[in-house]
Amino acid sequence: MSDKKTVFMSMSTDILHGGHINIIQKAAALGELTVGVLSDEVVSSYKRYPLLSCEERMKIAAGINGVSRVVKQNRLDYQEVITELRPDYIVHGDDWKTGFQKPIREECIRLLSEFGGELIEFPFTENEEYGRIEAAARSQLSIPDIRRGRLKNLLAAKGLVTCLEAHSGITGLIVEKTSVFQNGAVRQFDGMWVSSLCDSTAKGKPDIELVDFSSRIKTIDEIMEVTTKPIVMDGDTGGLTEHFIYTVRTLERMGVSAIIIEDKTGLKKNSLFGTEVPQTQDSIENFCEKITAGKKAQKTSEFMIIARVESLILERGMDDALKRARAYSAAGADGIMIHSRKKEPDEIFRFIDAFRKEDKRSVLVVVPTSFNSVTEEEFKLRGVNIVIYANQLTRSGFPSMRKTAETILEHHRAKEADEKYCMSIKEIISLIPEE
Ligand code: SPV
Ligand code: MG
């Protein structure tokens, strides 16, 4: 057996520069070096979506002088690595002594100490040029051709993705940037849902397809200008088939990843009204025609058309819902969104279980506004692929604005509202990226 020390270091980068090579050489000088290449899922959740896939990054790492072995690393923390490889040394930059990786570092030291392993840290130096390279890589992500395919890539990497609604540049930035650290991992939303309800509400208008397509596109454009995450558009009924094919091409050109259209016709009302207002479901035949025409019109293989089944909302029964889902899928839909306004998830679960038994291919989407007690993990286990939080930023933002307005009126000044409800200007400014 070789008495050479074993060394491990993680690598997430997709743009290799001199700084990476320096640290790899220092690590290799300590012994036989294994590089753990972080999976696409891990890199996209803690940093940004990688421009190169994990497999590509593994090939690059394997070609670097001094690297003896390359493995895929599926977690940001070191638990698996340490248990499996028991390296003598783990190498890392010293920048993780503070910030969200601090607990990962502490756990790494503790696990290594169990068998006499050691953490070796090299000083991390900020480098303006490397900063510029990273900023350039980040800006690539907003280019339509790169952005469009990210939803499909994330679905392949993660199985389940989450989207939160955005209806403006600033709400887009909240979806883009909000992250929490939990159990050795960073959690972020994967994408954005541009909801017809929230887009209309932000304009003080009812959700009846009154806010026209040009206006909806403008909202998407504003969001796209300041964010990079994939966008799913709520396409209402999709309009006339003859118009829908143009909508598909426009969205595709812009870099939107998917459109969801619902099988209603005539004056569309929001689904959460259910049968309290008159709503007409489209015929299976018509809606299938629309889906097929849309799929035929699209130019790339990345864009997705997802068909939304309104049978449960309109109380037409489970059999009708399943029959429609089957037909829409056969007409070419990439996925099915099933909607319900019941608080208990029973009917949505019954649909998911029955649908998944016979269709393993279609992307399955849910919007748990009413059945909000179900966790993402449970949806994933049942075979759901996209969970959309469709209106929560709107529903939390506007009450707070109303309270602020009332408080200023009550006190004849802004002091009380400032203290109770307002973010500081400094904090607001920090949300806005500077070029
Ligand atoms: C929207 O967000 O506009 C939707 C989802 O269509 S729902 O409001 O639940 O119908
Ligand atoms: Mg809608």
Blueprint of the fold:
Layout: E1 6-11, H1 18-28, E2 32-38, H2 40-46, H3 54-62, E3 67-73, H4 79-85, E4 89-93, H5 102-113, E5 118-122, H6 128-140, H7 144-147, H8 150-158, E6 161-165, H9 169-177, E7 179-182, E8 185-188, E9 191-194, H10 196-202, H11 213-226, E10 231-234, H12 241-254, E11 258-262, E12 264-265, E13 280-281, H13 284-297, E14 304-309, H14 318-330, E15 335-338, H15 346-358, E16 363-366, H16 376-382, E17 386-389, H17 392-411, H18 415-421, H19 425-431
Parallel strand pairs: 1-2, 1-4, 2-3, 4-5, 6-9, 6-17, 9-10, 10-11, 11-14, 14-15, 15-16, 16-17
Antiparallel strand pairs: 7-8, 12-13
Helix pairs in contact: 9-11, 12-13, 13-14, 14-15, 17-18
This protein binds sulfopyruvate and magnesium ion.
Sulfopyruvate is lined by residues 195-197, 207, 234, 270-272, 367, 369, 390-391.
